[in-house]
Specification:
Distance between the termini: 76 Å
Largest sheet: 8 strands, mixed
CATH superfamily: Alpha/Beta hydrolase fold, catalytic domain
Number of domains: 1
CATH topology: Rossmann fold
Shape: globular
Order of helices and strands: HHEEEEEHEHEHEHHHEHEH
CATH architecture: 3-Layer(aba) Sandwich
Helix content: 25-40%
Number of helices: 10
Length: about 270
């Protein structure tokens, strides 16, 4: 009888703990997904690369901060080949991703990067539908200066779902995805397998649903040592690629050092040239 009482007590503790952790996950999911670093509106970014900063007032509460990095490998009297719209990952702000810039600008492209609301100098509300809307505004700004076949969409980590959605609804030259996920919920389910993540998460970014609608060439880069978005998760996107698309695994690359690998740079150079 005593053992049964003790067992029942431990079951109650386990159930209570399960519920408490589940509640914490539900209400704290944004903190797990997004890790922004804010910057003052009048702060000055000290980039070593030539750039122009601008702010788009989307509505009364929303400001979208954008930095346009200029192409460096071109004659002074010529224009850039085109523009890369770069959707960055879940941490930091624009200044955190400047190491990704030179590979593109050295190939004659401008690279434009937009901070999501609450990142850097960007303000406003943030939900999945809004991020898609903001990316479209970003695209329309590029279209005011460039033809569709001069626009490359590139997403990194969290930004891959946003870039893929935009490529599914707007024309461009190419879609490049660095460390993409099948969906954000699939990552959550892998990390917390004992919870019904599909019902709990407000965020999804279903990259798998967008890729079949992308008509331009798609190139996916993943690292075989990525622990944040495992290669096994990214590989689930392969069935949604069309003939001519590429899925490239970079050996020895993790999540944060993929773009620093020589093979990645070599392949990216060939795509841009």
């Amino acid at each position: 009888m005593l053992n049964k009482k003790l067992l029942f007590r431990w079951i109650k503790v386990a159930v209570l703990l399960y519920c408490l952790v589940g509640i914490a996950l539900y209400y704290g999911q944004e903190r797990l997904i997004f890790a922004p670093i804010k910057a003052e509106r009048n702060a000055w970014y000290h980039f070593s690369l030539p750039s122009t900063e601008l702010n788009l007032n989307y509505d009364q509460n929303t400001n979208l901060n954008i930095v346009e990095f200029k192409a460096t490998d071109r004659p002074a009297d010529s224009v850039a080949k085109g523009v890369v719209l770069f959707f960055h990952g879940n941490g930091g702000n624009i200044s955190s991703y400047t190491p990704d810039v030179p590979t593109f600008t050295a190939n004659g492209y401008e690279l434009w990067m937009m901070d999501y609301p609450t990142y850097g100098k960007s303000t406003g509300s943030r939900d999945e539908a809004s991020l898609y809307k903001y990316s479209l505004v970003f695209y329309k700004l590029a279209r005011s200066r460039w033809k569709t076949d001069q626009i490359i969409l590139c997403g990194k980590s969290l930004g891959t779902g946003i870039a893929a959605q935009l490529a599914a609804v707007r024309d461009c030259r190419r879609l490049i995805l660095e460390s993409p996920y099948y969906s954000l919920r699939s990552i959550g389910q892998r990390r917390f397998p004992i919870y019904p993540i599909g019902l709990m998460m407000h965020w999804n970014f279903p990259t798998y649903a967008f890729l079949p609608k992308v008509t331009v060439p798609v190139t996916i880069f993943t690292g075989d040592e990525d622990r944040t978005i495992p290669n096994s998760n990214s590989k689930r996107l392969k069935p949604f690629l069309k003939p001519g698309d590429e899925y490239i695994t970079v050996e020895g690359a993790g999540h944060n050092d993929l773009s620093s690998k020589p093979f990645f740079k070599l392949k990216l150079d060939s795509l841009l040239k």
